[in-house]
């Protein structure tokens, strides 16, 4: 059994918090020191797919179908996600039940808003591929594309 | 007699007349990289001439110096020797240009840092929500409206929405992704941050506003040109059209859409290759323009 010290950087907050001394035990078969960020995404993905509250055990079982992962690792990362404000949790018997704070669609919409929003002060994305055009401009361009003998699917 | 009036006149010409000349000419859209260099050269030239003019105004003229000492004195600054102290004048003469330079550097650092902070915040959510697609080398987010953008810098990301993947053909999608890749590879965010820095320091000068606007659209054209290395004009133009048309709001005028039209018209228009001699002249001008104020300052009779 290998014992590893895991350092987790909280990228979601502006300050960088480093957790020292979180230990987890794995079977030493490799592939387990994957980036914790990936595991975070994986846990969120499970909960979003199921669309219901779930325990760490259920998540571990789901991930274990693809690759081995230790219960304590998932528990630790789920706690991190709770502290970062991605998950809500409530006790059911002795186990915690985790629920995403917001749906995946809500986060996706917020990302799009952030990147492509109409605000003048938009430092996030360098540039989105195209901005919005008025209907007249779209019509003019459609004509231009047609007169150039080009195929559009419009 | 010093070079201050000449420098001020030169700065006024660069700040007000040169942008109009640039906007009226047609070559910038044919050579966007060269045009972006010229805009930045104009900005650098303006900053240098402003700094040198400040230096020349303060340093050698005795009555002006005396006036400054009085102003400083009235502001509560205690001067050790009063008027006639050459150190104060020297100090002021150095401090003003340094202040201009420092303001530009700090502003650039501020814009770079702000962008980086916003992108890292965005990326932390993106890595959780989006799905990395190895085939596209991009992150796909579940959203119906078609969009594509990039997060440049370290740990760069290219992001494309599910809506865009559905809407575009494989070739069109690749052209769009290639465009975004060009922004990342070319480190366009730093070029734009420089333009932003100049615009926020010299906000009231027409050149400042135009440099920022034109840099933004020229960078898009540079990225378009890179996408054209692997895809035809038709593919890129139709991809742009599809994306823009899907976004067009019903009956409302949308600001900023104009640059897409300009970019598509540019792709559809005749592709005229200009004479290499013209390119050479413009490139030489881009190099020479920042040096001109230095020549004016240091070769003036007053200085010698």
UniProtKB/TrEMBL annotation, chain B:
InterPro entries in UniProt: Beta-lactam_resp_regulator, Peptidase_M48
Cofactor note: Binds 1 zinc ion per subunit.
Record-linked Pfam families: Peptidase_M48
Cofactor: Zn(2+)
GO function terms (MF aspect): metal ion binding; metalloendopeptidase activity
Residues in Peptidase M48 domain copies: 123-199
Transmembrane segments: 37-57, 94-113, 276-298
Keywords, ordered alphabetically: Hydrolase, Membrane, Metal-binding, Metalloprotease, Protease, Transmembrane, Transmembrane helix, Zinc
Domain of life: Bacteria
GO process annotations (BP): proteolysis
Protein family (similarity comment): Belongs to the peptidase M48 family.
Protein name according to UniProt: M56 family metallopeptidase
């Amino acid at each position: 059994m290998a014992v590893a010290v895991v350092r987790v950087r909280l990228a979601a907050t502006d300050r960088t918090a480093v957790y020292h001394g979180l230990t987890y035990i794995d079977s030493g078969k490799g592939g387990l020191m994957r980036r914790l960020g990936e595991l975070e995404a994986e846990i969120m993905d499970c909960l979003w797919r199921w669309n219901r509250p779930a325990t760490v055990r259920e998540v571990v079982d789901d991930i274990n179908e693809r690759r081995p992962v230790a219960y304590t690792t998932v528990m630790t990362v789920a706690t991190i996600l709770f502290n970062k404000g991605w998950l809500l949790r409530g006790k059911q018997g002795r186990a915690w039940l985790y629920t995403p704070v917001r749906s995946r669609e809500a986060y996706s919409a917020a990302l799009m808003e952030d990147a492509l929003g109409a605000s003048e002060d938009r430092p996030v994305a360098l540039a989105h591929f195209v901005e919005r055009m008025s209907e007249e401009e779209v019509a003019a361009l459609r004509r231009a594309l047609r007169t150039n003998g080009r195929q559009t699917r419009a | 007699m010093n070079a201050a009036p000449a420098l001020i006149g030169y700065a006024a010409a660069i700040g007000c007349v040169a942008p109009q000349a640039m906007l009226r000419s047609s070559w910038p859209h044919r050579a966007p990289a060269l045009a972006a260099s010229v805009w930045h050269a104009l900005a650098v030239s303006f900053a240098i001439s402003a700094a040198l003019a400040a230096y020349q105004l303060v340093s050698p003229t005795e009555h002006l110096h005396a006036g400054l000492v009085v102003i400083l004195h009235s502001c509560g600054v205690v001067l050790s020797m009063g008027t006639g102290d050459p150190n104060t004048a020297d100090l002021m003469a150095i401090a003003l240009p340094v202040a201009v330079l420092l303001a530009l550097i700090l502003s650039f650092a501020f814009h770079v840092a702000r962008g980086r902070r916003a992108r890292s915040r965005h990326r932390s959510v993106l890595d959780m929500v989006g799905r990395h697609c190895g085939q596209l080398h991009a992150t796909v987010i579940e959203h119906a409206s078609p969009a594509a953008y990039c997060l440049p810098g370290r740990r760069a990301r290219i992001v494309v929405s599910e809506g865009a993947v559905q809407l575009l053909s494989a070739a069109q999608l690749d052209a769009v992704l290639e465009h975004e890749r060009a922004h990342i590879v070319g480190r366009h965010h730093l070029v734009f941050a420089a333009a932003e820095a100049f615009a926020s320091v010299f906000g009231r000068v027409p050149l400042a506003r135009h440099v920022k606007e034109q840099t933004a659209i020229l960078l898009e054209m540079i990225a378009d040109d890179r996408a054209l290395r692997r895809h035809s004009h038709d593919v890129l133009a139709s991809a742009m059209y599809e994306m823009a048309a899907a976004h067009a709001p019903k009956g409302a005028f949308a600001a900023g859409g104009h640059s897409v039209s300009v970019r598509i018209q540019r792709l559809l228009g005749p592709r005229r290759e200009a004479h290499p001699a013209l390119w050479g002249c413009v490139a030489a001008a881009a190099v020479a323009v920042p040096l001109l104020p230095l020549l004016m300052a240091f070769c003036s009779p007053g200085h010698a």
